[in-house]
Design a protein that fits this description.
The structure holds two protein chains of two kinds. By secondary structure, chain A is of the alpha+beta class. Chain A has 28 helices and 17 strands. The N and C termini of chain A lie far apart (about 55 Å). Classes of the chains: A alpha+beta, B alpha+beta.
Chain lengths: ~725, ~130
Amino acid sequence: MRNKHKILMEYKYKPKALKHGYTDKMLYVNVGENKIEEKDIPEEVKEKFIGGKGYGMRYLWDAVNPDTKWDSEENEIVMSAGPIAGITQYPGTGKTLVCSISPMTDIPIDSNVGGYVGPYLKFSGWDGLEIQGKAKEDVIIVIDGIEGKITIETAPEEEIDGHLLGEQLTEMYAKDEHEKRQISVITAGTAAEHTRMGILNFSFYDIRRKVARLKQAGRGGLGTILRNKKVKGVVVKSKPVKGDLNNPFDQSIINKTGIKLHKEIANHDHEQNNMHKIGTAALIDTMIEFDLLPVHNFQYGTHKDAVKMGNKVFINKYLTQGMVDGCWYGCSLACAKAVDNFELKTGPYKGHKVVVDGPEYENAAGLGANCGIFNPETIIELNFYCDTYGIDTISYGTSTAFAMECFERGIINKEITGGLELKFGNEEASLKLIHQMSKGEGFGKVVGQGIHKMKEIFAEEHGADPEFLFDIGTEQKGLEYAEYVCKESLAQQGGFGFTNKGPQHDEAWLIVMDMVNNQIPTFEDKAEALHYYPMFRTWFGLLGLCKLPWNDIVPEENDKTDEPAKIPEHVQNYLDLYYGITGQTITPDDMVRQSEKVYNFQRVFNIRMGKGLRANDKSPYRMMGPVTKEEYESRQERYDTQLKEKIGVDPEGKTTEEKIKILREFRYDQYEQLTDAVYKRRGWSSNGVPTKEKLQDLGMDLPEVLEVIEKHL
Amino acid sequence: MRVKRLVKDESKCIGCGKCEEVCSQAYFKEKNPEKSRVRVKGMEKWNKLTICTQCGACMEVCPTQALKRDKNGVVKLNKNDCVGCFMCVGFCPEDAMMQHDDEREPFKCIACGLCVDACPTGALKIIEY
């Protein structure tokens, strides 16, 4: 197979060693012009943008213009891991942030992903990688950090689906079994070519299972862009990993901090979230308990059959226990669980026994409950096909749930779906959809465009009521919502609604704090939380870190601290790691400030690309309250009580429709008040535009940034 | 498989530190208790000995399988394969996987018996199970 490769470009270089977490070099590859260049990252960029998503946004901004679309030649996929990424002593330190102009949202997306690519790029001399242009035929990019050689090669015979291509390229570029651990591969999949919700798979070689496992940069259609550029895959080959390759300023503090957290996890994970046994799917039982699990396109928060996909089912029957499931070295939280020897029942790989990475919480909730599917085996099968075909499980789940509701309500019918009986719970129909996406056929291709496009098609071609579609279509800015019912948490409605890239759970996850524990009752409290948490969490994306070891394990004495929700001891751990790597001492306020620079830059980037204003932060009512009679009546007691106690309206004698209307007006008003409070706290105008003063204060009053906002102030 | 391991009798330990000296001297060419694979700590009423039981918990958490049992059942670290993540240090139930900031990789008892020979009171023994 490798003999069929034609080398289109070869570039030799001397890999620059890391110093204090940086090489200060960016690798630029243009697959359209077969050009490979190295760029020095200026000190000013480093100071303002730190790394990871900061670098992604900065280089993407420079590459594109306000008219750039996702499939424009100049659109780039930019990835960078950040200065802390690649240390091996502290859990969750191998993340890569990937940025591009998204086919779902038409604005910048950033998606974080595990696997070894980001650290291996650093060890090969690169703080980041830009991929621009469009190849004429299928190519791969090979970055060999051992030989100091980068090639663009044609790859005519390789598979496209992630689980096969990951194996092929790992096998091809490792000289023996032992060297496979030094290879990490980026792939997409066949469905990434035909849908807008394509993902990037980043591999990590599992030496126990002897398989190249996959983690996903899932949100926003990055795989769609990769395939549009006719890139089949990217291979990074690194020298052997050692604990000091980042050449940190102070290794000792990193060692101590890491061992402290390993001990905390060893002693307490089993009594807290059990991440080492079930991974993020640990959330399922909690979501069921608090009526937060999305069921039937977010209409309901639980279901009588939900127990069939409960935590114990996955632990006892499916997820292999006792494995070392970290997606980067040193992650003792080990949430990258897998199902082994899973025999597929459908599709082109029917009968194959495969390793399935997951299911994670979002997969189980989105592919399962939200579509009315509670059969774990179907969830696992859909999970596998999403990954290998290169589809985002969240966008797939939420989009399919929307299509199912439209079908059940008669907005679409079998004629439109090509014969698919797209009812909630129809496992066969969902599996057919996914296989159609891989081939670019049938109704699967329509669902694969995502809810935003489906709404347009259903309204324009099938006469649906656009307002109703807006209410039940759970997307915003073009991106599908992540799998949490937030109707009873105003803060989380904002947590989804005021995000830069669209409604995901990366920026803010305040449901428990807001709804369960009632810790942020006032608008000001909520606004403070919607300032602090998105900024704090953005910091992970600048440094190359995973959020899970921040709050999915907590120190024994955390409850006794002033602000348990912030987990102060873990915040200090991150400050210690930052010092250990860079030698700079910073405070929690400095962390927020570092994030604010990039966060506001991204907000302005959104505005530059045509979104990012107040109108774009509106929320579909399905995520705010009961749209339909059935929804209201399913929680009538709750809503009637709220009418009485919160609004001062007696529900007696009123029809459900009347009550829905009153509640809706109240909740929209609350959302608007929250919007005002949050914009004020963030230093934005009432239209959601970062003010000149705010940008000046942050040192982000760059001429190109001011030029964008001046039109809106 | 037979397992060769160190056992302790803390009632016999006088806390002289000979075991630590001989261990660090043998493997790091310096007398430094912080670089010993066996540790003595004086408690109020007795001396506490930290020793590796060769239980293998470290092998289970090692992401690179750099920790393996040899033919005597002794768990040994292959430094070439070690990435220095120290998960083994954090997960050792005996706190007997050691780490020192001078070293990139952790280190552990390989049941060589040098400390047994150096112990003046017979507080340490090598036993095969």
